[in-house]
Amino acid sequence: MSDMELLLWARGPGLQGAVAVFVAGMALRLIEIYSLGRKRDLSPARPGNGGAGWATIITRSIPHKELLRTTYLTYILGYTFHIGLFVTLLLFAPHIQLFRGVLGFGWPSLPSPVVDAVALVSIAALFGMLAYRLYHPVKRFLTTFGDHAAWLLTMLPLLTGYLAFHHLLLPYTLMLAVHILSVELLLVFMPFTKLVHVATIFISRWYNGDMLGHKGARL
Amino acid sequence: MSASFERGVNSFREVMDAPIASFFSSCVHCGLCADACLFYTETGDPKYTPIYKLEPLKRLWRQEYTLLGKLASLAGLSKPITDAELAEWSELVYDSCTLCGRCTVACPVGNDITYMVRKMREGMAAAGHAPEGVIEATRKTIEQGSPMGIQLKAFLAQVKGQEEETGIEIPLDKAGVDYLVIMSSMEILGYPEYLGSLARIFKQAGLTWTVSSEAFEATNSGIQIGVSDIAREIVLRVVNAAEKLGVKYVISPECGHAFTALRWEGPNLIGRPYKFEVVHVLELLDQLRRAGKLKTVGKTDEPLTLHDPCQIVRRGGVVAEPRNLIRMVASDFREMEDSGMYNWCCGGGGGVSANHRAEELRFTVFKRKKRQIEGTGAVTMVTACANCRNVLEEGLERYHMDTKMIGLTELVAEHLKEDEQA
Amino acid sequence: MKEQETLAEHLRRQGISRRSFLKFCVATASLLGLPPGMAPLMAETLGKVRRPSVIWLSFQECTGCTESLTRSHSPTLESLLFDFISLDYHHTLQAASGEAAERAREEAMKANYGKYLVLVDGSVPLGEGGAYSTIAGRTNLEMLEETAKGAAALIAIGTCSSYGGLPYAHPNPTGAVPVSAIVKDKPVVNVPGCPPIPLAITGVVAHYLMFGALPELDEKGRPLSIYGETIHDRCYRRPFYDQGKFAKTFDDRGARAGWCLYELGCKGPTTHNACATTKWNGGTSFPIESGHGCLGCSEPDFWDAGSFYQALSTPLSSLDKAAGVAAGAGVAAGAAIAVHNRAAKRAAKAGHQAVTVNDLEK
């Protein structure tokens, strides 16, 4: 198989398959979660906290100063990586073309050198997170094979994208194919690893906020 | 019948719900909950990481409630949980968790870990892995009416004592009044002045109230040990008495988990809403303050700090009220570092104070509170939970600190305007 | 044209100065990646070369490759070099026809056995026993195999003979294959492009004449020196790509300002060719310079690589159907596990024995 054939496969059947697994997996996982149901809370809620679940989806992104003191590095690395990932994913012109192709609409892009720098920072943060995971006693204690697998699945698209953009290591066509394939790998495994938090974080935060809000705790 | 592993696992299966499935799905093993938990911060032992305390429950969920997990266990890729594991986890679920909920507000993906530990205890207790001390407290509550074995006679003696102390009549079993006052056994035993304080405050505000000979105990060991069947029986005592007397409100005393049991869990335990409302005493006092019915004179100029009881503040939503009341009677109120929603637990909530096995650990983690108190330079620490107060007093003694302690209701009562009392 | 004439003599007779020839050699040397100092040596060596015998086989093709070389606006050195070779067989260009033409090929093969070059344009159909394309009653396959036997080397001119090209495109009704799929025991060099750059064709021939060997090839059998870089690498619009400035339509402000054509489907990033440096029509321009994205014509499968106007980063096939079917499957699997989970929870509830204080210990 030539690299062009690989690229064509990645852009065609490969992407179709990956998206299919992703969609099916996500549907399965979300139904799996929601179908377990939740008992209605019969205790009278404190008034005025109706939207606490929705609010928490946003507010939980802002770490409180009380929590930052000992854990700032986790926050800094986490924030840097996530912002970097989203900027790279959503504001790089070729990616926007992809979304335009799939969704039917697009949005303005950032200059490529900016995205390039952001991607590099994101990659660095991800390596930092790995190092911290291996170093920090709690993180090391909690770490499973799944955590390393998820790290690799996330790192590959960033790294191959960076290498492809700079025409490094492999011929561009091949690297582009590898890049797209790595994204497909990520899509395939996303519903079945901890990476499913891309979706369930909203559900969890909502429940968390709703339950605390019911009791009147303001966060 | 007796406890068995099968009954425990059956309870695990029973409590599994959408929030738990979502929480387990979302965890990214970031470890931030450990930094929010004083059992980790004060010991440095990673096994006290809150989410790790749920590992057996998580495995059962994955193996039995997810498609992929089921396939994996069919293929022999994951081992079922064992009784030995649950025995090992007993320490993590009971000794090193006070259900304080700090991890719940810290978790960046929004996992309510406290909610899950409470649920996990259902299975742990049914499997016979609850600690002896907590079992004992629960047995006494069911068999004698109170976790400390306090009987009606003793309660009535304290009522009489407070009537003599204050010169105010305390109504007993009076139907048709607005408020029913209940107490925690810790208060009945150690801080009966709470009742006298309330008598004076009610008199000043002109409220009608009563105590009940059938339901004077507010605490609920069933919640702490994590057995809903028992918790239901205990909460029903209060509900039945209150509905028989036809009161409009039941006042939850200065006791954290009693508030949680009565206010939040109770209606769900008995499967219906109450015919009365539950208010926390601090909520009531603050209402009276706002209505101008709570009149005080003078302010203490002693430096004074507040320990936020987790179940009342973080998990009860009563945050501003204690502060309003303290500022009413104190001129030098100093907030602790990490106060309010982010306060640190006394270390003895959620049944830990009844759990003798956990005593040393409890004193170890008290170091956090010690630092907090020392940081304020306060001479007196106010709180609004008799269990916190008891645990804090033990800690202060252990570490040779001379910080004084006082209940918030008592503090307010000390400053009540005299001339309107008689 | 005398048989034993050298290239230098031939060019002189055509009125081409040595200076012009030297310029051609400089261009060729640069295209082939030879050091500039090699140009005079090349001129000298090539000048002494005697006319090589070349057999040009045209299979499933459109004659565009021949056109590229011969139909230049004005006579070029490339075409003159082309004139110089002893083109013993080319059924489009040769005067002879029918049996005489075939006889010319056979005679050239016999006379120059082991020394002649075979240039092929067009793909070779294998379907229906090769019946899709025959010459003088013989299939392309037969003719190629027979001609290749005595060849010194083969040069696949154009994308069809290099990679299958248009006939090879899905669903490939004729079973077309490239030359390299058939000829395994002779050196084959691919000079892809639809058509290839004329200088690329003559450059490879010149290299062979000068060194008696084919140039260094990449993994796709192309001369590394010509096809080593992508159009994107050398594109004068590359800075706009780097800045994220893209034309959105062919007549918007960006298009007029000469911004990058990536979003309009330019295949420059994945296309290896020398267009951006060598250019076309005597160095006038190349497609991107004329405002149109690169089609990627010198790459394998370029006809199947999606619309010419579809950006490289976009999916080639619609995801809607796959996603729809998958969503259905996911919902079905979810429903199955949901039914199971609810039953499991119900069973647990039914199996719940009320826990009393006497049940707390074993």
Major beta-sheet overview of chain C: 5 strands, parallel
Q: Helical stretch count of chain C?
A: 16
**The CATH fourth-level homologous superfamily of the largest domain in chain C:** NADH:ubiquinone oxidoreductase-like, 20kDa subunit
Radius of gyration of chain A: 20 Å
**Mean pLDDT rating of chain C:** 88
H/E element order of chain C = HHHEHHEHEEEEHEHHEEHHHHHHH
Secondary-structure content class of chain C:
alpha/beta
- CATH class assignment of the largest domain in chain C: Alpha Beta
What does this structure look like?
The complex is a heterotrimer of chains A (219), B (422) and C (362). With 219 residues, chain A is mainly α. Chain A has one domain (3-30, 64-214): Up-down Bundle (Fumarate Reductase Cytochrome B subunit), CATH 1.20.950. Chain A has helices at residues 3-34, 52-59, 65-91, 93-103, 112-135, 137-142, 145-165, 172-189, 197-214. Chain A starts with a helix and ends in a 5-residue tail after the last helix. The mean pLDDT of chain A is 93. With 422 residues, chain B is of the alpha/beta class. In chain B, strand 5, helix 18 (320-329) and strand 6 (333-334) form a beta-alpha-beta unit. The longest helix of chain B has 18 residues, at 228-245. With 362 residues, chain C is an alpha/beta fold. Chain C is built from 16 helices and 9 strands. A 5-stranded parallel sheet of chain C has the order 2-1-3-7-9, with helices on both faces. The radius of gyration of chain C is 29 Å and the shape is elongated. Chain C starts with 6 loop residues before the first helix and ends in a 12-residue tail after the last helix. At the A-B interface, helix 1, helix 3, helix 6 and helix 9 of A face helix 2, helix 3, helix 8 and helix 16 of B.
In short:
The complex is a heterotrimer of chains A (219), B (422) and C (362). Chain B is of the alpha/beta class and 422 residues long. Chain B is built from 21 helices and 8 strands.
Write the SSE topology.
The complex is a heterotrimer of chains A (219), B (422) and C (362).
Chain A: H1 3-34, H2 52-59, H3 65-91, H4 93-103, H5 112-135, H6 137-142, H7 145-165, H8 172-189, H9 197-214
Helix pairs in contact in A: 1-8, 2-9, 3-5, 5-7, 7-8
Chain B: H1 5-15, H2 18-26, H3 32-36, H4 38-41, H5 55-65, H6 67-74, H7 83-95, H8 102-106, H9 113-126, H10 132-144, H11 152-166, E1 179-181, H12 185-190, H13 193-205, E2 209-211, H14 221-225, H15 228-245, E3 249-252, H16 256-270, E4 277-280, H17 281-290, E5 304-307, H18 320-329, E6 333-334, H19 359-376, E7 380-383, H20 386-398, E8 404-407, H21 408-414
Parallel strand pairs in B: 1-2, 1-3, 3-4, 5-6, 5-7, 7-8
Helix pairs in contact in B: 1-9, 5-6, 7-9, 11-13, 13-21, 15-16, 17-18, 19-20
Chain C: H1 7-13, H2 18-31, H3 38-48, E1 53-58, H4 64-70, H5 77-84, E2 86-89, H6 98-111, E3 116-121, E4 124-125, E5 134-135, E6 138-139, H7 140-149, E7 151-157, H8 158-163, H9 165-168, E8 176-177, E9 188-191, H10 198-211, H11 224-227, H12 231-234, H13 238-243, H14 253-256, H15 275-278, H16 320-350
Parallel strand pairs in C: 1-2, 1-3, 3-7, 7-9
Antiparallel strand pairs in C: 4-8, 5-6
